[in-house]
Design a protein that fits this description.
Elements (H helix, E strand, L loop, with lengths): L1 E4 L8 H9 L4 E4 L13 H9 L6
Parallel strand pairs: 1-2
């Protein structure tokens, strides 16, 4: 079971990811969606911090 995260400003939200973890999900993949090079990786650090609070190892 795995879950793909786009970035902090999109789905899935914290509650959905927490539920995924509670149901046994342990693998997350992360990526960014950008329309210009200056915003590649935007919010990725915040997203990692948020999901580490659920106990995911990143």
């Amino acid at each position: 079971m795995f879950l793909v995260l786009s970035n902090l400003m999109s789905l899935p939200n914290y509650k959905e990811v927490k539920r995924y973890y509670d149901l046994g999900g342990r693998i997350l993949t992360m990526g960014t969606d950008s329309h210009n090079s200056s915003s590649v990786g935007q919010y990725i650090d915040e997203t990692i911090s948020m999901y580490q609070n659920i106990v995911f190892k990143m």
